[in-house]
C-alpha cells in the first residue's frame, strides 16, 4: 500500500511587516523564491505575529496608564506595569494569576499566558496583540491566496501556547480557513472492527505544531506550507477548537 | 537561503503486536517495505499502544473487582465499573472527576483522561495500559534501531491527549530517546536583536503531533518516521516534558 508522506516547507523571505501591508501579496512573493511550487490543498501556516502587525495591532506602551492592580502585580514580580495593564485589558477572565504568570481568557476565548500580548519580535516600547479575529483574518488571506493560485488551499494562523502539566510551548491554530480543524473518528471502527469512541483529533493544532518545527522563533521564518496531509478541505473555522464553557472542567 | 523541508513518512505493515514481540525487529521489517530508506537522524514515532502490547500491558477486565467508588461512578455515568476501577488504580492523583470524565495523574506523572487506559484497538474484554516506563521503552528501542541501522536516530513513544480549554486530542511524546524534547530559545535574540524570554518549545510534542497526521487511529498505522527536523540529537528523555509540581498552577 502506497501511503502519502507529508512535507513541511519553511518559507523565508517575508519582509518585516508593517501596518496596512498586503500580507497575501508578500506571501506570494516569498513563495515565488521558494524551491517548491504551491499546489492545490497546500496549507499555509502563518505566525500570528505577522498577521497582527499587518492589522496594526501594535500598542505603544507609553500610551497605557496602569491600574493599581497592574502596578502592584508588576512590582511584586518585576514586570512592566504598562504591559501587565495591557494583558488585563485584553483579558475577559483571569484563569490563574500566580508565580508571576497570568493565564487568562482573551476576548476571543483563547486561554493562554499574557492574553497573547507579546513583546518579542516587536519594536522596543511596543507590544503586539493577537489578531482582532483570527478566523476572519484566515478567511481573508485564504480568499486572496485561492484567487491568486486558482486552487483550493488552507490557511492556519498560529501561535505558541503553553499547556498545564507539560513543559514547553507548542504551536496551535488560532484562525483556520479552508479545512476542518477537527477530525472525528467517532463511529468509525478500529483495526479490530470495534467502534472508536471519543476520538476527535485537533488536526489544525497538529498542523500548526508541525509547521513550528520549520519556523523557528529566532530565525524570522513566520511561514510554512504543509503538503500531503489527508484533510477535509472546504469549510472550517478555528473557533471550533475552543472548548465551550459548559464542557470546561478547569474553570 | 536554502531551507530544509521536513518529511513525515507513514510506516504501514506492522503486524498485530502480541506480548513479548520484538518490536524493533518488526519495525525494521516494516521499514524494509517502505518507499524510503532509513537515514541518520530519522525520528521514529511509535504509538504507545504497540509498545504497551509488546510489553504485555494488557488487562483482562474480568480479573478486576471494582471498588464501591468505581461502581457508583460507573452507574452514574454509564461506564464499565471494572474499567473505572482500573483507571483509579493506574492513577496516583485525581485532578478532575466530573461530567463522566476522569482526569488524573498517572503513576508516571502524566495528566490525562482515564490514566491512559484504553479499550480501542484492544481485544474485547481487555484494556491496554500505558507502557510501564515510556522513556525506558524508547531508550531500549533506540538502542536496537541504532545498532541495526548503524546511525544516530531518535525515538518518540506517543499518545493522544486531550487539553483543557481546547477541543480535540493531539499526539504528545510520552517517552523520548536520542533527542532533546525541549528547544530553548532563552537568551537568543529575535529578528530585531532583542533577547527572547520564556520561549521553550516542546519539539518532541510537536514531532508527535506531526506524526499523528499520517498515522490515523482507524487505519492501523502506529508508526511514522520524521526526517529533516533541526533537532539536538544525542540525549534527552520524555519525562522532562512533565511540569514539576511546584510549577503547576493547576493542581
Q: Helical stretch count of chain A?
A: 6
Give a quick account of the main beta sheet of chain A: strands, pairing sense, barrel closure.
Answer: 5 strands, mixed
Distance between the termini of chain A: 46 Å
Strand content of chain A: 25-35%
Largest interface, with counts of residues having CB < 8 Å to the other chain, equals: A-B, 80 and 80 residues
So what's the oligomer here? homodimer
- Mean pLDDT over the residues of chain A: 93
Count of discrete domains of chain A: 2
Strand pairing plus helix content of chain A: what structural class? alpha+beta
Number of strands of chain A: 12
Using only CA atoms, what is the Rg of chain A?
Answer: 19 Å
The CATH architecture name of the largest domain in chain A reads 2-Layer Sandwich
Biggest sheet of chain A, strands in spatial order? 1-12-2-8-9
General description of the model:
2 copies of one chain form a homodimer. Chain A folds into 2 domains: 7-57 and 132-242, 60s Ribosomal Protein L30, Chain: A; 59-128, CofE-like domain (CofE-like fold). The first copy, chain A, has helices at 23-32, 48-55, 68-77, 81-89, 134-149, 203-215; strands spanning 6-10, 43-47, 58-60, 91-98, 101-106, 111-113, 126-128, 154-163, 166-177, 183-184, 200-201, 223-227. Chain A is α+β, with helices and mostly antiparallel strands. The first copy, chain A, is globular. In chain A, helix 1 packs across helix 5 (134-149) and helix 3 (68-77) crosses helix 4 (81-89). In chain A, the strands form 4 sheets. In chain A, strands 1-12-2-8-9 form a 5-stranded mixed sheet. A 3-stranded antiparallel sheet of chain A has the order 4-5-6. A two-stranded antiparallel ribbon of chain A has the order 3-7. Chains A and B meet through strand 1, strand 5, strand 9, strand 11 and helix 6 of A and strand 1, strand 5, strand 9, strand 11 and helix 6 of B. Strand 1 of chain A pairs antiparallel with strand 1 of chain B, so a sheet runs across the interface.
Amino acid at each position: 500500500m502506497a501511503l502519502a508522506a507529508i512535507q513541511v516547507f519553511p518559507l523565508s523571505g517575508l519582509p518585516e511587516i508593517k501596518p496596512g501591508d498586503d500580507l497575501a501579496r508578500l506571501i506570494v512573493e516569498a513563495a515565488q523564491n521558494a524551491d517548491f511550487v504551491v499546489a492545490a490543498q497546500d496549507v499555509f501556516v502563518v505566525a500570528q505575529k505577522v498577521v497582527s502587525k499587518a492589522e496594526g495591532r501594535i500598542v505603544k506602551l507609553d500610551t497605557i496608564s496602569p491600574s493599581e492592580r497592574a502596578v502592584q502585580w508588576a512590582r511584586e514580580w518585576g514586570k512592566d506595569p504598562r504591559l501587565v495593564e495591557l494583558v488585563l485589558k485584553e483579558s475577559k477572565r483571569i484563569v490563574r494569576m500566580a508565580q508571576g504568570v497570568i493565564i487568562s481568557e482573551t476576548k476571543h476565548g483563547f486561554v493562554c499566558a499574557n492574553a497573547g500580548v507579546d513583546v518579542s519580535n516587536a519594536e522596543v516600547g511596543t507590544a503586539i496583540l493577537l489578531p482582532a479575529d483570527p478566523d476572519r483574518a484566515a478567511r481573508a488571506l485564504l480568499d486572496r491566496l485561492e484567487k491568486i493560485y486558482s486552487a483550493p488551499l488552507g490557511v492556519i494562523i498560529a501561535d505558541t501556547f503553553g499547556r498545564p502539566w507539560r513543559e514547553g510551548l507548542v504551536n496551535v491554530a488560532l484562525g483556520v480557513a479552508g479545512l476542518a480543524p477537527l477530525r472525528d473518528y467517532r463511529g468509525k471502527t478500529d483495526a479490530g472492527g470495534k467502534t472508536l469512541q471519543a476520538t476527535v483529533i485537533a488536526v489544525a493544532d497538529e498542523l500548526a505544531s508541525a509547521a513550528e518545527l520549520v519556523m523557528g522563533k529566532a530565525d524570522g521564518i513566520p511561514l510554512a506550507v504543509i503538503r500531503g496531509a489527508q484533510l477535509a478541505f472546504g469549510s472550517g473555522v478555528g473557533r471550533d477548537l475552543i472548548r465551550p464553557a459548559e464542557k470546561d472542567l478547569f474553570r
